[in-house]
TrEMBL record, chains A, B, C, D:
Its job: This reaction introduces a second double bond into the aromatic ring system.
Lyase among keywords: yes
Pathway: Metabolic intermediate biosynthesis; chorismate biosynthesis; chorismate from D-erythrose 4-phosphate and phosphoenolpyruvate: step 7/7
GO BP terms: amino acid biosynthetic process; aromatic amino acid family biosynthetic process; chorismate biosynthetic process
Protein name: Chorismate synthase
One Pfam family per UniProt: Chorismate_synt
Keyword Flavoprotein: yes
InterPro entries: Chorismate_synth (IPR000453), Chorismate_synth_AroC_sf (IPR035904), Chorismate_synthase_CS (IPR020541)
Subunit structure of this chain's protein: Homotetramer.
Length: 367, 367, 367, 367
């Protein structure tokens, strides 16, 4: 990952400021011959877009994607695919007051210090608007994955919102698309609605934990030592706005387990190795095992919360800042499609990297 | 990070198998003119090396590093620095039984599946022995950092071992070097000694959480969006053997905080911005704030624990495996110097990247 | 250089097919604070664009560039700069006949073999239209160079067209902008006009040699061994459509020189080292000396020349192909601005890389 | 290519100074399962090594390579392969006089200016000794190519020495290994011996042109636009010490050809497309055609020639320098194995890159 490009062979470069004319990305290295049109990408953007329900931000962007290159007669050509999304609903005046102040918890101050200047409108390049470009790239990745690994399935969902968790014994994948939180626990869905309403009315915000699971991942993906699959997933998720922690499998909880509890034992099944558990989260030594890849990341709460906060200005004066305008009481909700998109991009990237390095031939077990 | 190299400008490539003749690394992009000799690197390796006390593995390697290039008359030349450490205490017979079996929780099976073959002795390339190369590279990074950012200080320590944590109100940095756990809480140090003795006698193992703090980091380091400082730290720590989670600042706990609790407010001090807290862990928008950079990672427990585990062989037969030989009841202890080394390498890398991209000039505040 | 991105720190990714809706590029890593607007880039595109005189292709594109990101209030922000140029004058019917045939000397057959499909309209991604994106990126590079190295000057010109050369004793830099060939020899300018008219009428084409000279380049740019300045220039120029050779300084002719003739002797001047000649072309050991950097590249003749050529179809049938439509009798003429743009991008890239690696401080001579 | 690493997937990092204890390289990304031992690499080093005949330098190094990692039971494991060659015959006193002076035509001055210091012994890192590491890496590449593309054959030879060329009508590949110049023209071999004797006696030196031809290259290798096969070859050859020009196919001479003369017409053969000529040198649009890949590069004459040259010292004093010691009257001779090694590395790299990006499946013609 470097500057504004991530990926080794499937390389995505995003561009665009929150209040600029457009945002977009260049997707380079997509295998040729994959069926692709705007219709394959738009639904993923629609899932993510603002203004969908009362819990997420009120900015109303159609987020309509256009494919400007890299596709001919409905198939990818192997050349760079340029995706562009025009911005239409910027309300620059919402941020007018704060161009000289640094919003606590935001990148305003660090962008100013690093670059000497910044586009303050909507957070400029540091805004989560950038994640729309990722979701678009994820749409391309999913199309390629569908062609290369038909059984592969990626599902993202929330497992925690603020202090509220889920009961995994009630885990129902079908529930994910039925509630506005993408939470797989129907009881939690109801509780969280009430919880978030209260937060909204008190002008506060909370963080969230999102889990992304990929099933049907072939074994052997990952390029140790420094191109490990879990390293790349960690970098990918940590790069999402407001993320402060990333976990694979048991994650931080692995520290408290004993060796007996943690290791996933192996038996032989009709189709190859079968694991008796998945504490590893589908990755051993940085390489996929064939088990579901399970990755979680934590999103911190939004800072822009209508409560006065102590901060300073570019001129060094101390002020109390109250941010108005449109804000998410829980940005984490909208990170679900973003986490899925990053998972798709990283998995496709590693599929290509693996077949480049090894030809994709697996060491036999039992044959 | 790619394949076996990490870093953008300060690029480290490691090589070597656990039971091969040697291990080492090529450090490319170290600034010229830095005073460097083996004496600057050896102490960091000595901190890490096996056989230091009864709690860590009994393999006795001198881990003596040689500088084979890149230094002339005691100063770095700006050309690649080759560091080599000869292996002397390989006990290949310890692993003889398991060449055909896959140790649960280890990379044996995934290396076999990906590459079709593997060096099974001591875990080959997947062994934690590789981390000695990182620590050596970290020694070079520290030497360069000392020249470029004299006030910068990196400290690693354990904050959790198995189910045992620390009491941060008793945090004493001086305690870190006084106990075999590098834990900054003297009460914990005593408790953990007893706890680990029990585990050792029961042939079990536990995981750990290591925290690495960097103080005196200048603001402005990090290259958003995909070269963010926290992304690179996440990838770096996740790449360490047995790591399953990485956190910055509040980490996963940020999800449960409210916006009011989480944002670090800012006031103006005599030397520039002063933060009233550090929930962010020193990084905002992927760029350092000047606050201490705080990174934590969780190491899972060792799998090689003398208890029979169900597994399979390369031939697909189901067996119960008992691993004998030398093993750590808590590998996490030895990950402390490794985490410090990765922090040093990533920070130096970003220092160079920042001065390349921006000239290192900071946007003024208050002047 | 990788896939569709070139550069280490100043990284340019181009996209777009000849007959797609648009072409463009993402310029990543431009230093912040540089004054930039469309007016800084458009003139370079105007120099390159088709339809300028009777000697170049008749396709009439306005080549109007838009800046979609990375600039705020007239200054670069350090974030990716997206440049887009809409295509308006595609005549897809000109290529209708040949969608199934492979034009000899073109990339049609290799793109088909590698990717399995291709956009045949105007050569798709393999068309020299892609070079407009490079020239746009070159405009950004020039703006940054003007800010960072005020005395640096890049000049491109033709030194050979077909069998016609120039007389270097008549070299007049002012002449370059006065004739349609950018040739610095007024006598040659007249001769070449006649020569090219003849070729045009006989439906033939010739190649060309373009030389690009950069003056005022500071010493010390280049990152040996594999990031040498001349290596990157060679890759950059060879990547231009139809290029078959690249030279630095004496180039291929250096082979015939003796050691006495070739080495540039050095004396001491008021401002530092002064070279008595420049056979080296401004680069020694892959690093700039401070002398003018002199780079030449040869462009092969256009293949699309209205003469029947033997070729095959995708179906494997043997056919005689006659390409109609708009074609250049000498594509080399329009490569002059492209060569200049590549020189600008590579030099800026190395300026940033050098200051990243060394801080830009030079080893003193004589002080 | 970056800093001291070249390659996209087959990545070679070299290290080592001419008079340091050793030189070597890390070869990362070699496919697993390739049969490899020192015996596969040593012969290539023996071809290159100094002291072979009276025409090349008199430094006598055994150039004995050791494989320190990445191979197990005679097969590559897919992990990094460390190759090391110890230096044994450094005569540092040969260079003692010139530590403070800059040899004209050498990188002494530019290394001093860029880095502030340099290892002057034998040219340090800028010495052609570094090419031994490349030849070793080339040995690994050849082993992998032999496994993956059995028919692929790489042959390097000289086509020009000083003012002496060859007669291609007398081209005899068998002659290459029969004379000390690796020249495929027996008449030239005799002439050149005399020519070089004269130069040697007069303490002068000349340059050379080396051609490397690769036969049996599958079509489809190369990653346009900026990972073109010819771009990577140009960078690879230009990175070799003393190289000043690189050509593909007709090279610089393509400029003087007409379109009728230059385009390679295509017919259909029993095994696929057959080209009627190969002016393109086996590459179209940056992608291999299946025709022999033909690459030439020019090496400038050695500067160290026992004739006094005007130069300056680090202190800025003007001196006349006479370099004594061991020197090549024609370094070009020893560049032949180096060019072959670079060709092998680049082709293998692109084979892996292509199968990563496209799966290696070719678009059908005629089937």
């Amino acid at each position: 990952m470097s500057l504004n490009t991530f990926g080794h062979l499937f390389r995505v470069t995003t561009w665009g400021e929150s209040h600029g004319p457009a945002i977009g990305c260049t997707v380079d290295g997509c295998p040729p011959g994959v069926a692709l049109s705007e219709a394959d990408i738009q639904p993923w953007l629609d899932r993510r877009k603002p203004g969908q329900n009362k819990f997420t931000t009120q900015r109303k962007e159609p987020d309509e994607v256009r494919i400007l290159s890299g596709v001919y007669e409905g198939r990818t050509t192997g050349t760079p695919i340029q995706l562009m999304i025009e911005n239409t609903d910027q309300r620059s005046k919402d941020y007018g007051d704060i161009a000289q102040s640094f919003r606590p918890g935001h990148a305003d101050i660090t962008y100013h210090q690093k670059y000497g200047l910044r586009d303050p409108r909507g957070g400029g390049r540091s805004s989560a608007r950038e994640t729309a470009s990722r979701v678009a790239a994820g749409g391309v990745a999913r199309a390629a994955l569908a062609a290369l690994v038909p059984g592969l399935k990626i599902t993202g969902y929330m497992v925690q919102m603020g202090v509220k968790g889920i009961d995994r014994s009630r885990f129902d994948a079908e529930e994910i698309e039925r509630n506005p939180f993408w939470v797989p626990d129907p009881v939690a869905a109801a509780e969280w609605a009430e919880y978030l309403d209260d937060l909204r009315l008190s002008h506060n915000s909370v963080g969230a934990v999102i889990e992304v699971m990929a099933e049907g991942v072939p074994p052997g993906l990952g390029a140790p030592i420094y191109g490990k699959l879990d390293s790349d997933l960690a970098a990918a998720m940590m790069s999402i706005n407001a993320v402060k922690g990333v976990e694979i499998g048991e994650g931080m909880a692995a520290a408290a387990l004993t060796g007996v509890e943690n290791a996933d034992e192996i038996r032989m099944g009709p189709n190859g190795p079968e694991y008796l558990s998945n504490h590893a989260g589908g990755i051993l030594g940085g390489i996929s095992t064939g088990q579901p890849v399970v990755c979680r990341f934590a999103v911190k709460p939004t800072s822009s919360i209508l409560t006065p906060r102590q901060t300073i200005t570019t001129g060094g004066a101390e002020v109390d800042l109250v941010t108005k305008g449109r804000h998410d009481p829980c940005v984490g909700i909208r990170a679900v499609p973003v986490g899925e998109a990053m998972m798709a991009c990283v998995l496709l990237d590693h599929l290509l990297l693996d077949r480049g390095q090894t030809g994709g031939v697996r060491g036999p077990i039992g044959q």
